[in-house]
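Ticket #4471: structure output looks truncated?

Reporter: J.K.
Steps to reproduce: submitted the chain below (84 residues) through the standard prediction queue, then opened the result file.
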Amino acid sequence: MTLDGRTAFPDGRSQWITGEAARADVQFWRGRAGAVLTGIGTVLADDPQMNVRLPDQERQPLRFVIDPRMENAARRKALDVEGR
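Returned output as attached by the reporter:
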């Protein structure tokens, strides 16, 4: 989140709010995690991959989506195990 409390432009376009080093750090820690958890709102709005995108990373964490209203994220990147 930016200092003004936003994570995207008013029209919904997203913008990186972290630097390359921070994004690499996330990949490192995600690679060490057993699971990644997010809510359906994030999945529907951002379509995150939730996988580890590091060279030579063989093991991927389990991906969990909290979806209490069963809004179905089946066609989203978060649950695409073929794409890792």
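Triage note (M.O.): checked the attachment and the full token line is present. The chain has a mean pLDDT of 81.
Status: closed, working as intended.
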